[in-house]
Amino acid sequence: MVTSRAAALLGIGVLVGAVPVAVGVNPWTVLVIVAGIVVLLVLADRALATNPRAIWLSRLGDTNVRLGETAKVELVAHNTNDSTARLLVRDLWVPSAGASDSVYELSIKPGQKLALGTSLTPTRRGDRPALAVTLRSFGPLRLSHWQITRTVPWNLRVLPRFESRKHLPEKLAKLRVVEGAIAIRGRGQGTEFDTLREYVPGDDVRSIDWRATARRNDVMLRTWRPERSRRVVCVLDTGRTSAVRVGDEPRLDTAMEAALLLAAVAQEAGDQVDLLAADSRVRAAVSGVHGRSLLPRLVNALAPLQPALVETDFEQIASEVLRRERKRCLVVLFTALEPGALGEGLLPVLPKLVARHQVLVAAVHDPALTELASTPVDSADAVYSVAAGTRALLERQRITTALSRNGVSVLDCPADTFASQVTDEYLALKAAGRL
């Protein structure tokens, strides 16, 4: 292809050719000579340009990054030709990858490799792929160029922010209290044997270990701690209601933050955490993972999840939980308190689920409803706003009451404290021996 330089050179030639025309030379002869010279220069320049197909491309760099952070990905160009390559390179990514400095002008000597760094600051969670790389190879005079577009595959997975990890020190401190940093003197439901210690006046005599007392010739007491190796199942509703934005992010992202914080604390407590994300079908499932690999597995499973504009099938979700979890466990259902969805979908299948498991429904409260209900009544429009907000709040209260009557714990709190309160509820249930 011809560049603008060739057109400029032709224009200069025409201007120079105006001198012989002024002294009587045929203008067409001058134009043909000038055009011929420019064409020969263009062809020569094109012949000297490196074929871009001789440039080998590969990628190096980050494959994962948290939302809000910056990743570095390098495009490595290797010149396998015998001549110097003068290139204009454009590295194209999807817009939500937040690519910067993606156009480069460089010169690569024969056999040389150059790494072109691209900074990526994604604006959305999920997989952000590289689209294509366009190579434009110029000749020494830059009068013409070769151009090809190639695909150099690379995928950057954008993980959830997990900003709720700032609450971990506080929650782990509460967990240590629950587990017995302060000794539990009496045995209650959901506790297991911890250690033996000497009897202190005021201790419950029912906890005296008479066999240990006989062996040691001193009154020995058993201490107890909440049972470990319990099971927690985080169920994320990815249906249409999860797409509603509460504050600055969708409900689904807020639920992810809460699920990750809960999983981190439950892991430290020695409990097993499983994950199920579903709407009309199962979107993601993580089970049977222990130790330090749990959080990375959960984060990678949650990263590509997006709300689906379908109605959630709670009957299928309940069936999946009952099929996967044979032993009693805590099922935390992250959903919305929508009377239609829960009343028609969840309430009919609750008896089977509650009969086997402890169920907690965790929902993000939308502050817009409270604002509507408290709108000053100074116009006709304000009356309708107050009526709409009040009705929505009453319907949420009605569905909360219906769930509680079926033995379900309900948590309805603002987005900024949602993750913290879900974990507090888990710790409260654990301390009460209800897991």
UniProtKB/TrEMBL annotation:
InterPro entries found in the cross-reference section: DUF58
Residue span, DUF58 domain: 196-372
Coiled-coil blocks: none
Bilayer-spanning residue ranges: 28-49
Keyword entries, A-Z: Lipoprotein, Membrane, Transmembrane, Transmembrane helix
Membrane as UniProt keyword: yes
UniProt key word Metal-binding: no
PANTHER family xrefs: BLL2464 PROTEIN (PTHR33608), SLR2013 PROTEIN (PTHR33608:SF3)
Full protein name: Lipoprotein
Organism: Rhizocola hellebori
Origin organism lineage: Bacteria, Bacillati, Actinomycetota, Actinomycetes, Micromonosporales
